[in-house]
Amino acid sequence: MTSIRQFQVTFDCADPERVARFWCEVLGYVVPPPPKGFATWDDFDRSLPPERQGSAFACVDPSGVGPRLFFQRVPEAKVVKNRVHLDVRVGTGLVGEERLAALEAECARLLPLGAVRVRLLYDGTDSCIVMRDIEGNEFCLD
């Protein structure tokens, strides 16, 4: 049996490029180069049938370590809480007030990008901040 070495995380959304660019900013990811034969992603998108234009977008970890993120347009809006979410690990190794300060600083950076703070979970030692991205997908600053 072979083991899986790579995976991507797929987001259903209304505006794939907008959500992808948000996550690029959050994670320091980049938009990969367009397919061979196309100077830009816009050129590639215009080559697609009208019903597929703007239907997908992706971003990647420039170091090659993190998973590829793929965003696909779906007709329905988000209705309930995500069953899977990303934990953005900004407080790894920190505890107490030092951890909380790191999480709060990252939260402050993400709010102008369109993220929404939902609530702080803090027990005096461990903490995380529950957030939503620009289309309402939950994630945690951890």
Low-confidence stretches: none
Alpha carbon gap, first and last residue: 34 Å
Chain-averaged pLDDT: 93
- What gross morphology would you assign? globular
Strand content: 25-35%
Work out the number of β strands. 7
Radius of gyration: 17 Å
| Biggest sheet statistics | 4 strands, mixed
- Based on secondary structure, the structural category is alpha/beta
Helix content: 10-25%
Order of SSEs: EHHEEEHEEE
Counted by DSSP, the helix tally is 3
Strands in their spatial order, largest beta sheet: 4-7-6-5
What does this 3D model show about the protein?
With 142 residues, this protein is of the alpha/beta class. It has three helices and seven strands. It has helices at 16-27, 41-46, 96-110; strands at residues 8-13, 56-59, 68-73, 86-88, 116-122, 127-132, 138-141. It has a four-stranded mixed sheet with strand order 4-7-6-5. Strands 1-3-2 form a three-stranded mixed sheet, with helices on one face. Strand 2 and strand 3 form a beta hairpin. The longest helix has 15 residues, at 96-110. The protein starts with 7 loop residues before the first strand and ends with a strand. The model has no long low-confidence stretch (mean pLDDT 93).
Short description:
With about 140 residues, this protein is of the alpha/beta class.
Helix-strand blueprint:
Blueprint: E1 8-13, H1 16-27, H2 41-46, E2 56-59, E3 68-73, E4 86-88, H3 96-110, E5 116-122, E6 127-132, E7 138-141
Parallel strand pairs: 1-3, 4-7
Antiparallel strand pairs: 2-3, 5-6, 6-7
